[in-house]
Amino acid sequence: MASASLQFFAFILALFGGFGDIAATLLPNWKVNADVGSNIITAITHMQGLWMDCTWYSTGMFSCTLKYSILSLPVYIQAARTTMVLSCMLSAFGICITTVGMKCTRLGGDTDSKNNTCFAGGICFILAGIFDLVPTCWYTREIISNFLDQTLPESSKHEPGGAVYTGFISAGFLLIAGVIFCSSCIKRQQGAWIYPPKQHHFPSTEQESNAGYSLKDYV
What residues form the membrane-spanning segments (predicted)? Predict the structure, then answer.
């Protein structure tokens, strides 16, 4: 029962991690630059994401521009696009697999098949968390290095936005969920190897009868 509740808790973490992964991929505020100027009324916030750049004015106006050209983008943005999409696909695939393999569901066949299915889902979650964590760290490193560069003007410097923090949190959820699923399946398999099922050997009645018959013949 404890293992089933732990798997259900890991599944909830994976759901939050998967939705956060998709949100971080689509949000335009990976890096933010606020230009207040001389008057607070003319404040402008520039936001840059993986797929679009947006500008928000203090008057409430909001405009976005899609990034159509892929080759003109920096390498870290191209890599972030690819790895984040792979992370979303792996997290969705892991959710479908673990739904079948969890102990609290009636799908997936016998116990061994469900354990193998849960282990595969846990591997998907771990890979999704890694694919989410790597571009997020790389993107944050580029933001910090540009911010500390003294040769760049202040208008070209940015700070990490909400999408970066969402990516970090969702990666943590996916990694924790994957570790829980894999560890629960490994413990069950190790227990089966250490304590194999006992086989009861019953003596054959035919051999006893034959042995008794042969003894009577020699008397």
Answer: 75-97, 118-141, 161-182
